[in-house]
Fold this protein.
Amino acid sequence: MRPAEPLGAEDRERLLHGAHHDPHGLLGAHPVPGGVRFRTLRPFARSVAVSAKGLRVELFDEGDGFFAAVLPLIEPPGYRLLVDYEGTELEAHDPYRFLPALGDLDLHLIREGRHEQLWRALGAEPMEHEGVAGTRFTVWAPNARGVRVVGDFNYWDGTGHPMRSLGASGVWELFLPGIGEGALYKFEITRPDGSHTMRADPMARRTEAPPANASVVHASHHAWQDAEWMAARAERPVHEHPFSVYEVHLPSWRPGLTYRQLAEQLPAYVKDLGFTHVELMPIAEHPYGGSWGYQITGFYAPTARLGTPDDFKYLVDALHAAGIGVLMDWVPAHFPRDDWALAEFDGRPLYEHADPLRAAHPDWGTLEFDYGRAEVRNFLVANAVYWCEEFHIDGLRVDAVASMLYLDYSREEGQWLPNVHGGRENLDAVAFLQEMNATVYRRCPGVVTVAEESTAWDGVTRATHHVGAGGFGGLGFGLKWNMGWMHDSLVYVSKEPVHRKYHHGEMTFSMIYAYSENYVLPISHDEVVHGKRSLVSKMPGDWWQQRANHRAYLGFMWAHPGKQLLFMGQEFAQGAEWSEAHGPDWWLLDPSYSAEADHRGVRDLVRDLNAAYLSTPALWQRDTVPEGFEWVVSDASEDNVFAFLRFDAQGAPLLAVSNFSPVVRHGYALGVPGRFTAWQEILNTDAGRYGGSGVTTPDPVKTEATRHHGRPASITVTLPPLATVWWRAV
């Protein structure tokens, strides 16, 4: 044995300061003239010995934590290191004796931006490598001068754990033997200017609970029980099937409950009310609870506030067992500037656009992704696939699509530059959304993507290969939130009935464009916060009239073409705005509360609306084609009355009539198809059990051979005050 040739001063300095691209070339065991050189970097160690079969040799101390020697061996043996720290000897595998644990195909796909299961290549992956159990750490940081792994396993000092650069891919890798699930870690990155930054793993699949922000090594052990659900969902085209959504903010639905505790309550509640789906506000990890999850730092990790990733899978499994589909809000539009997360991740703009005008989001103080960069686009496309494949999510509601599509979104003149064609469209974002939708629909049968898009962009729900009048292919979404309907209809119902005749068109205008896209009618969290008031509190009049308006509006909404979404608390007419600090006012449903019946009545109506909706194909089977709808009365502005027919695929009709005035209208004639002998009232929002005045029609109404509203027959009915009534032909 002899001392090794000393490290060059530059290599030594770069290793000690985390700025070396190839630590494996200097550390570990390497053949040299006359034997095998062993070198290790173990800060704070008193001594280090090499242990192999029939061999134990102490290495020479080279200072600064370096220990090395040349042993008279023909080739590197299988060996371990015996490291003495103040009299405590630890035996460990040498991380620098292992070949890369990431394959060439993975690196090629990463570089091309085409790795559709990116989470299997980047991040922290517990595995067995070359017969040894440990964790492979990989991170994309192409601008870094060096990267080191730090964690609770090395006392957050990465000096002894520099990573190697895997060439032009920009990926850094290190396999650490003996590190397993539950270990906390980050990446210490040496920036181009030589400074250091400690970063959470962008690909972390588990994190610490905020405000702590370390990443956690994770492997899933959940055994899915929803094979039947997953097989069947691909057979149900969403636009031709029932789709009634209950929107939930998980941390505040029942504050204090974990994912597993929510699994005992949420599925039963949603199933009882008859909703077909839940939509979860963002559950990816986010540092600030007040953002409701819309400023994400951990795109691949369910928030640790409520439990582990497997706990979240347990909740999804429970919802599927109850027959409930699971949508989640997905936020690829922007990310926060936290200096431990994605912003200037490796010392330069990486995930964000290099142009500050393109990077800074003008409304939220956040950064916008650089959709034109292949690796960034890959990060987001794979993320969409990840939630669907790994967590069995049934749909992604994509947040703030409009802010992505337009270069001038919320920007004044001089704050943006046109695209190569001189237009305002963000061509990179368009291409990204098309790729994301195409990839998700190809890989995940039965999943639906939903756009929150607030402009008149052409072809949001059109196939990506169908080019529209504007010269763009469709964005490829399955559904789009109808923000126009939401805004217009709320303007109408918020007016006193005496003034509604001047706003009649607000309720009919939606049918002019109803079939331009596949729509969802959203009464979401955004409509019941920040001074906008809850749904029932938007309504005019006294408490009875407010509830009556609320019920009539829900009846109109459930009958209108398009799917429907209702935010939690609105199903029982909560009077206060939603607050993430305490969630819905469940006490309103306490039998000891004097007005409990008022709120229970509204919830009973929502249950019955969903039941009637599910059993009436006319309300969902032809949602996206004009043949499924006909106006009966669209111009009765003086009466505040709207009446229309919905038809199923066989032509069976449902008649929906809304009277948004506070008076009973007797002897109201409505034109109907002549081939039916009678019409039966199947739902009436004025029923006494809902808290209404009880103006109902229990017996069938006979069809008369009297022309009305351009139809050969008619029925004459009594319209209850501030109510919606549904009749089915019999």
